[in-house]
Design a protein that fits this description.
about 45% helix, five-stranded mixed sheet, binds 5'-O-[(R)-(carboxyoxy)(hydroxy)phosphoryl]adenosine, 12 helices, Nucleotidyltransferase, domain 5, binds zinc ion, alpha/beta, about 350 residues, globular, 2 domains
Protein backbone atom coordinates (compact mmCIF):
# COMPACT_ATOMS: atom_id res chain seq x y z
CA UNK A 1 0.00 0.00 0.00
CA UNK A 2 1.25 3.50 -0.72
CA UNK A 3 1.70 5.65 2.38
CA UNK A 4 -1.56 6.84 3.89
CA UNK A 5 -2.14 10.57 4.09
CA UNK A 6 -4.53 11.08 6.98
CA UNK A 7 -6.49 14.29 7.50
CA UNK A 8 -7.35 14.93 11.18
CA UNK A 9 -10.22 17.22 12.15
CA UNK A 10 -10.65 18.73 15.63
CA UNK A 11 -13.44 21.02 16.88
CA UNK A 12 -14.28 19.90 20.42
CA UNK A 13 -13.69 23.24 22.15
CA UNK A 14 -12.60 26.64 20.79
CA UNK A 15 -9.90 25.54 18.34
CA UNK A 16 -10.72 24.51 14.78
CA UNK A 17 -7.88 22.23 13.69
CA UNK A 18 -6.96 20.36 10.54
CA UNK A 19 -3.71 18.41 10.32
CA UNK A 20 -2.12 16.01 7.86
CA UNK A 21 -0.05 13.04 9.00
CA UNK A 22 1.64 10.28 7.05
CA UNK A 23 3.46 7.34 8.66
CA UNK A 24 3.81 9.12 11.99
CA UNK A 25 5.14 12.28 10.34
CA UNK A 26 3.42 15.65 10.55
CA UNK A 27 3.06 17.10 7.04
CA UNK A 28 1.47 20.34 8.21
CA UNK A 29 -1.51 21.82 9.95
CA UNK A 30 -3.92 24.73 10.16
CA UNK A 31 -5.47 26.07 13.36
CA UNK A 32 -8.03 28.78 14.06
CA UNK A 33 -9.09 29.81 17.55
CA UNK A 34 -12.15 31.66 18.79
CA UNK A 35 -10.49 32.31 22.20
CA UNK A 36 -10.65 36.09 21.80
CA UNK A 37 -14.40 35.95 21.15
CA UNK A 38 -14.86 34.30 24.55
CA UNK A 39 -12.59 36.75 26.39
CA UNK A 40 -15.35 39.02 27.71
CA UNK A 41 -17.14 35.99 29.20
CA UNK A 42 -14.01 34.60 30.93
CA UNK A 43 -14.58 31.14 29.45
CA UNK A 44 -15.71 29.31 26.31
CA UNK A 45 -19.31 29.98 25.22
CA UNK A 46 -20.47 26.86 23.30
CA UNK A 47 -22.76 28.65 20.84
CA UNK A 48 -20.04 31.18 19.93
CA UNK A 49 -17.50 28.35 19.55
CA UNK A 50 -19.80 26.40 17.22
CA UNK A 51 -20.46 29.42 14.98
CA UNK A 52 -16.75 30.20 14.86
CA UNK A 53 -15.99 26.60 13.84
CA UNK A 54 -18.49 26.89 11.01
CA UNK A 55 -16.79 30.04 9.73
CA UNK A 56 -13.31 28.53 10.15
CA UNK A 57 -13.62 25.04 8.67
CA UNK A 58 -13.01 25.82 5.00
CA UNK A 59 -10.18 28.41 5.38
CA UNK A 60 -8.46 26.30 8.05
CA UNK A 61 -8.66 23.16 5.91
CA UNK A 62 -7.16 25.17 3.04
CA UNK A 63 -4.39 26.45 5.32
CA UNK A 64 -3.56 22.91 6.44
CA UNK A 65 -3.34 21.69 2.84
CA UNK A 66 -1.13 24.62 1.85
CA UNK A 67 1.14 24.09 4.89
CA UNK A 68 1.46 20.39 4.02
CA UNK A 69 1.87 20.79 0.26
CA UNK A 70 -0.91 18.24 -0.14
CA UNK A 71 -3.87 18.39 -2.56
CA UNK A 72 -7.33 17.56 -1.25
CA UNK A 73 -7.43 14.54 -3.61
CA UNK A 74 -4.21 13.14 -2.07
CA UNK A 75 -5.96 12.48 1.26
CA UNK A 76 -6.42 8.74 1.76
CA UNK A 77 -8.26 8.70 5.12
CA UNK A 78 -10.12 11.13 7.38
CA UNK A 79 -10.07 11.07 11.20
CA UNK A 80 -12.22 13.27 13.41
CA UNK A 81 -12.80 13.98 17.09
CA UNK A 82 -16.14 12.37 17.95
CA UNK A 83 -15.94 13.36 21.65
CA UNK A 84 -15.66 14.31 24.40
CA UNK A 85 -16.26 18.03 24.01
CA UNK A 86 -18.91 20.72 23.66
CA UNK A 87 -21.73 19.00 21.75
CA UNK A 88 -22.47 21.82 19.31
CA UNK A 89 -18.75 22.28 18.64
CA UNK A 90 -18.04 18.56 18.06
CA UNK A 91 -20.96 18.42 15.60
CA UNK A 92 -19.40 21.01 13.30
CA UNK A 93 -16.10 19.12 12.90
CA UNK A 94 -17.92 15.84 12.55
CA UNK A 95 -20.17 17.23 9.81
CA UNK A 96 -17.14 18.70 8.01
CA UNK A 97 -15.20 15.42 8.25
CA UNK A 98 -18.18 13.43 6.99
CA UNK A 99 -18.60 15.78 4.05
CA UNK A 100 -14.90 15.49 3.13
CA UNK A 101 -14.84 11.69 3.52
CA UNK A 102 -18.04 11.33 1.49
CA UNK A 103 -16.94 13.70 -1.27
CA UNK A 104 -13.54 11.99 -1.59
CA UNK A 105 -15.02 8.51 -1.00
CA UNK A 106 -12.42 7.80 1.70
CA UNK A 107 -12.77 5.95 5.04
CA UNK A 108 -13.69 7.94 8.16
CA UNK A 109 -12.37 7.17 11.67
CA UNK A 110 -13.82 8.59 14.90
CA UNK A 111 -11.12 9.45 17.45
CA UNK A 112 -11.40 10.06 21.19
CA UNK A 113 -10.11 13.57 21.92
CA UNK A 114 -7.93 12.43 24.86
CA UNK A 115 -6.37 9.67 22.74
CA UNK A 116 -5.42 12.47 20.34
CA UNK A 117 -3.72 14.44 23.13
CA UNK A 118 -1.90 11.31 24.27
CA UNK A 119 -0.63 10.71 20.71
CA UNK A 120 0.45 14.28 19.92
CA UNK A 121 4.00 13.96 21.18
CA UNK A 122 4.91 11.29 18.62
CA UNK A 123 4.77 13.99 15.94
CA UNK A 124 7.59 15.85 17.72
CA UNK A 125 9.63 13.12 19.39
CA UNK A 126 8.98 9.93 17.42
CA UNK A 127 7.13 6.72 18.27
CA UNK A 128 5.30 6.61 21.60
CA UNK A 129 6.89 4.62 24.39
CA UNK A 130 5.59 1.05 24.85
CA UNK A 131 3.80 2.30 27.93
CA UNK A 132 3.74 5.46 29.98
CA UNK A 133 1.80 7.96 32.04
CA UNK A 134 0.13 10.85 30.20
CA UNK A 135 -1.00 13.99 32.05
CA UNK A 136 -3.48 16.07 30.05
CA UNK A 137 -3.89 19.57 31.47
CA UNK A 138 -6.02 22.03 29.55
CA UNK A 139 -8.99 24.35 29.95
CA UNK A 140 -11.33 21.39 29.69
CA UNK A 141 -9.37 18.47 31.12
CA UNK A 142 -7.12 17.45 33.94
CA UNK A 143 -6.66 13.74 33.33
CA UNK A 144 -4.05 11.18 34.27
CA UNK A 145 -3.88 8.25 31.86
CA UNK A 146 -1.88 5.06 31.95
CA UNK A 147 -1.35 4.41 28.26
CA UNK A 148 -0.27 1.01 27.00
CA UNK A 149 -1.58 0.81 23.45
CA UNK A 150 -3.61 3.60 21.91
CA UNK A 151 -4.55 1.55 18.85
CA UNK A 152 -5.94 -1.29 20.93
CA UNK A 153 -7.65 1.16 23.28
CA UNK A 154 -5.49 -0.19 26.07
CA UNK A 155 -5.66 2.93 28.21
CA UNK A 156 -6.43 3.10 31.92
CA UNK A 157 -8.07 6.34 32.95
CA UNK A 158 -6.48 6.84 36.35
CA UNK A 159 -8.12 10.07 37.42
CA UNK A 160 -9.65 13.41 36.59
CA UNK A 161 -10.46 16.67 38.24
CA UNK A 162 -13.44 16.55 40.57
CA UNK A 163 -14.34 20.16 39.74
CA UNK A 164 -12.39 22.77 37.71
CA UNK A 165 -9.75 21.77 35.16
CA UNK A 166 -6.26 23.18 35.77
CA UNK A 167 -6.54 25.64 32.86
CA UNK A 168 -9.99 26.68 34.03
CA UNK A 169 -8.47 27.54 37.44
CA UNK A 170 -5.87 29.74 35.65
CA UNK A 171 -8.70 31.41 33.71
CA UNK A 172 -10.85 32.04 36.81
CA UNK A 173 -7.96 33.35 38.92
CA UNK A 174 -6.83 35.64 36.08
CA UNK A 175 -10.34 37.01 35.93
CA UNK A 176 -10.51 37.75 39.63
CA UNK A 177 -7.07 39.41 39.50
CA UNK A 178 -8.32 41.48 36.53
CA UNK A 179 -5.64 40.11 34.22
CA UNK A 180 -7.74 39.03 31.19
CA UNK A 181 -8.29 35.81 29.24
CA UNK A 182 -6.97 33.19 28.55
CA UNK A 183 -5.59 33.12 32.08
CA UNK A 184 -2.53 30.90 31.73
CA UNK A 185 -0.25 33.21 29.76
CA UNK A 186 -1.26 36.36 31.68
CA UNK A 187 -0.83 34.71 35.09
CA UNK A 188 2.57 33.38 34.04
CA UNK A 189 3.63 36.82 32.86
CA UNK A 190 2.41 38.43 36.09
CA UNK A 191 4.12 35.71 38.17
CA UNK A 192 7.60 36.27 36.75
CA UNK A 193 8.53 38.85 39.39
CA UNK A 194 6.44 37.28 42.13
CA UNK A 195 7.42 35.24 45.16
CA UNK A 196 5.89 31.73 44.87
CA UNK A 197 6.13 31.29 48.66
CA UNK A 198 4.45 34.61 49.54
CA UNK A 199 1.04 32.96 50.06
CA UNK A 200 0.51 29.38 51.15
CA UNK A 201 -2.48 28.35 49.01
CA UNK A 202 -3.97 24.85 49.44
CA UNK A 203 -2.66 21.80 47.56
CA UNK A 204 -5.81 19.68 47.36
CA UNK A 205 -6.09 15.89 47.29
CA UNK A 206 -2.55 15.22 48.51
CA UNK A 207 -3.43 13.86 51.95
CA UNK A 208 -3.18 10.16 52.77
CA UNK A 209 -6.56 8.62 52.04
CA UNK A 210 -7.34 11.06 49.20
CA UNK A 211 -7.79 9.55 45.75
CA UNK A 212 -4.13 9.56 44.59
CA UNK A 213 -4.99 10.38 40.98
CA UNK A 214 -7.93 12.80 41.38
CA UNK A 215 -7.52 16.57 41.28
CA UNK A 216 -9.48 19.50 42.69
CA UNK A 217 -8.81 23.15 41.91
CA UNK A 218 -11.99 24.94 42.99
CA UNK A 219 -10.80 25.29 46.61
CA UNK A 220 -7.58 26.87 45.39
CA UNK A 221 -9.52 29.38 43.33
CA UNK A 222 -11.71 30.18 46.35
CA UNK A 223 -8.63 30.61 48.55
CA UNK A 224 -7.21 33.14 46.09
CA UNK A 225 -10.57 34.96 45.99
CA UNK A 226 -10.74 35.11 49.81
CA UNK A 227 -7.17 36.44 49.97
CA UNK A 228 -7.93 39.21 47.48
CA UNK A 229 -11.20 40.09 49.25
CA UNK A 230 -9.46 40.37 52.61
CA UNK A 231 -6.66 42.56 51.25
CA UNK A 232 -9.22 44.85 49.64
CA UNK A 233 -11.38 44.94 52.77
CA UNK A 234 -8.35 45.93 54.86
CA UNK A 235 -7.43 48.59 52.33
CA UNK A 236 -4.10 46.86 51.58
CA UNK A 237 -2.60 46.78 48.08
CA UNK A 238 -3.11 43.48 46.20
CA UNK A 239 0.35 42.05 45.39
CA UNK A 240 -0.70 40.57 42.04
CA UNK A 241 2.74 39.16 41.16
CA UNK A 242 3.07 37.32 44.49
CA UNK A 243 -0.49 35.97 44.32
CA UNK A 244 -0.02 34.83 40.70
CA UNK A 245 3.29 33.11 41.50
CA UNK A 246 1.93 31.45 44.65
CA UNK A 247 -1.18 30.24 42.81
CA UNK A 248 0.90 28.92 39.91
CA UNK A 249 3.22 27.11 42.32
CA UNK A 250 0.26 25.45 44.08
CA UNK A 251 -1.11 24.12 40.76
CA UNK A 252 2.32 22.93 39.62
CA UNK A 253 3.07 21.19 42.94
CA UNK A 254 -0.12 19.14 42.72
CA UNK A 255 0.25 18.26 39.03
CA UNK A 256 3.88 17.17 39.38
CA UNK A 257 3.30 15.25 42.61
CA UNK A 258 0.37 13.28 41.17
CA UNK A 259 2.00 12.57 37.81
CA UNK A 260 5.20 11.33 39.49
CA UNK A 261 3.17 9.28 41.94
CA UNK A 262 1.36 7.60 39.01
CA UNK A 263 4.72 6.81 37.35
CA UNK A 264 6.03 5.33 40.58
CA UNK A 265 2.88 3.33 41.47
CA UNK A 266 2.48 1.93 37.96
CA UNK A 267 6.17 1.32 37.32
CA UNK A 268 6.30 3.66 34.31
CA UNK A 269 9.52 5.16 32.98
CA UNK A 270 7.98 7.86 30.78
CA UNK A 271 5.77 10.83 31.59
CA UNK A 272 4.17 12.84 28.79
CA UNK A 273 2.49 16.18 29.58
CA UNK A 274 0.14 17.77 27.04
CA UNK A 275 -2.68 20.35 26.94
CA UNK A 276 -2.59 24.15 27.03
CA UNK A 277 -1.29 24.25 30.61
CA UNK A 278 1.78 22.27 29.48
CA UNK A 279 2.89 25.60 27.99
CA UNK A 280 3.50 26.77 31.54
CA UNK A 281 7.22 27.36 32.18
CA UNK A 282 7.05 26.69 35.92
CA UNK A 283 5.30 23.37 35.22
CA UNK A 284 7.85 22.38 32.57
CA UNK A 285 10.79 23.26 34.82
CA UNK A 286 9.47 21.52 37.93
CA UNK A 287 8.33 18.44 36.03
CA UNK A 288 11.79 18.19 34.44
CA UNK A 289 13.54 18.48 37.80
CA UNK A 290 11.25 15.89 39.41
CA UNK A 291 11.62 13.48 36.47
CA UNK A 292 15.41 13.86 36.45
CA UNK A 293 15.54 13.09 40.18
CA UNK A 294 13.30 10.03 39.73
CA UNK A 295 15.03 8.72 36.58
CA UNK A 296 11.88 9.21 34.47
CA UNK A 297 11.90 10.42 30.89
CA UNK A 298 9.75 13.54 30.39
CA UNK A 299 8.15 14.21 27.01
CA UNK A 300 6.43 17.53 26.35
CA UNK A 301 5.55 18.46 22.76
CA UNK A 302 5.79 21.93 21.24
CA UNK A 303 3.00 24.31 22.24
CA UNK A 304 1.13 23.94 18.90
CA UNK A 305 0.80 20.22 19.58
CA UNK A 306 -0.01 20.67 23.29
CA UNK A 307 -3.13 22.75 22.67
CA UNK A 308 -6.08 21.33 20.72
CA UNK A 309 -5.17 20.61 17.10
CA UNK A 310 -6.11 18.44 14.14
CA UNK A 311 -2.65 16.91 13.77
CA UNK A 312 -3.00 14.90 16.98
CA UNK A 313 -6.28 13.46 15.70
CA UNK A 314 -4.60 12.62 12.40
CA UNK A 315 -1.78 10.94 14.37
CA UNK A 316 -4.26 8.53 15.96
CA UNK A 317 -6.03 8.01 12.61
CA UNK A 318 -2.68 7.23 10.99
CA UNK A 319 -1.97 4.60 13.67
CA UNK A 320 -5.42 3.04 13.22
CA UNK A 321 -4.96 2.89 9.44
CA UNK A 322 -1.50 1.31 9.66
CA UNK A 323 -2.79 -1.23 12.20
CA UNK A 324 -5.48 -2.24 9.70
CA UNK A 325 -8.36 -1.13 11.93
CA UNK A 326 -11.89 -0.92 10.49
CA UNK A 327 -13.12 2.64 9.88
CA UNK A 328 -16.07 3.98 11.86
CA UNK A 329 -18.01 4.88 8.72
CA UNK A 330 -20.18 7.86 7.82
CA UNK A 331 -22.92 6.91 10.30
CA UNK A 332 -20.69 7.79 13.29
CA UNK A 333 -22.35 10.17 15.74
CA UNK A 334 -20.93 12.62 18.26
CA UNK A 335 -20.34 11.39 21.79
CA UNK A 336 -19.88 14.65 23.76
CA UNK A 337 -19.31 12.86 27.08
CA UNK A 338 -17.22 9.98 25.72
CA UNK A 339 -15.05 8.32 28.35
CA UNK A 340 -11.90 6.34 27.72
O1 LIG B 1 -5.51 22.79 25.37
P1 LIG B 1 -6.12 24.14 25.33
O2 LIG B 1 -5.65 25.10 24.28
O3 LIG B 1 -7.67 24.07 25.11
C1 LIG B 1 -8.53 23.27 25.84
O4 LIG B 1 -8.99 23.78 26.88
O5 LIG B 1 -8.77 22.12 25.42
O6 LIG B 1 -5.91 24.77 26.78
C2 LIG B 1 -6.32 26.07 27.09
C3 LIG B 1 -6.01 26.33 28.55
C4 LIG B 1 -6.53 27.66 29.04
O7 LIG B 1 -7.26 27.43 30.24
C5 LIG B 1 -5.29 28.49 29.28
O8 LIG B 1 -5.43 29.41 30.35
C6 LIG B 1 -4.26 27.42 29.60
O9 LIG B 1 -4.58 26.34 28.74
N1 LIG B 1 -2.90 27.90 29.32
C7 LIG B 1 -1.95 27.98 30.28
C8 LIG B 1 -0.80 28.55 29.66
N2 LIG B 1 -1.10 28.77 28.34
C9 LIG B 1 -2.38 28.34 28.17
N3 LIG B 1 -1.97 27.67 31.57
C10 LIG B 1 -0.87 27.91 32.30
N4 LIG B 1 0.25 28.46 31.79
C11 LIG B 1 0.33 28.80 30.49
N5 LIG B 1 1.43 29.34 30.01
ZN1 LIG C 1 -8.11 19.10 24.51
Amino acid sequence: MTSPIVLGVESSCDETGFGLVSNGRLLGQGIASSAQQHAEFGGVVPEIAARAHLDAVVPTLENSLAASDVELEDITHVAVTSGPGLATAVHVGLAAAKAIAWALDKPLYGVHHLAGHAAADLLDHGPLPDKGIVLIVSGGHTSLLEVHDLVEDDIVHLGDTLDDAAGEAFDKVARLLGLGYPGGPVISAAAVDGNPSAFRFPRAMLRPGDDPYAFSFSGLKTAVARTVEKLERDGDPVPVADIAASFEQAVVDVLVAKALRACRDKGMQTLTIVGGVAANKRLRTHAQEACDAAGIQLRVPSIDLCTDNGAMIAAVGDMLVRAGKEPSGLAISADPSAVL
